[in-house]
Design goal:
By secondary structure, this protein is mainly alpha-helical. It has helices spanning 76-110, 119-156, 160-165, 179-193, 199-206, 219-224; strands spanning 167-171, 226-230. It has a domain at 76-230. 16% of the residues are buried. It comes from Streptomyces doudnae.
Length: 231
Amino acid sequence: MSFGSPQNPYEQQPGYGQQPGYGQQPPQPGYPQQPGYGYPQAPQGVPQQGYGYPQQPGYPQQPGYPGGPGPRVASMGRRLGARAIDGVILSVIYIFLAVIGVAGSMNAAGDCDPNAADYNSCLNDAGSDFAAKFGAVIGVLAIASLIYEWLMVGLVGATLGKLAVGVRVVKVESGQKPGLGSSFIRWIIPMVGSIVCGIGQLLVYLSPFWDKSGRQQGWHDKAASTMVVQN
């Protein structure tokens, strides 16, 4: 049995054959204790990452656009430009149909004989024919607008005007094409507004200026849960 140091005679000494553990060094007087050999130990409370490549933060996710940033919202200049192009296309159709209707009514009025006893009745019939044809032109134009806006936006996501300026209509939640249901809602709201001398329709198309959501949604977009984005 060996005794300890004079300062601590009962200090326990390591037994025969016992060595300090691997990676551990006995403390030296006057020197701070150094960590043992092996992998460095991280501070307590710091989460550790697994082996392999370091993890990088992912892209911020937007509703309906997982794995990447959200789309670019189309500017009002592009949207109004697309509306102007679509208006020109529909106006050409309207003028073509109106010319056909007016020409037919004028021919009917020209066939009336001023010397005939039923001249006034013939003119009245021609006027009624003109009114009927004018109403038919308006109806055909509404159907053409429905087919043009409803089907193209629902199935393609854009009209010819929107394709020309590089914008398209998408669902807010998924970023996909609106579909026939949403595109019909989006079409019918400005059409109802056009009944009052077109003032309501104009307000609907200008309503994105007052949207504070950052998506520039018009009243028709909010009702259909759609938005217009830039390609």
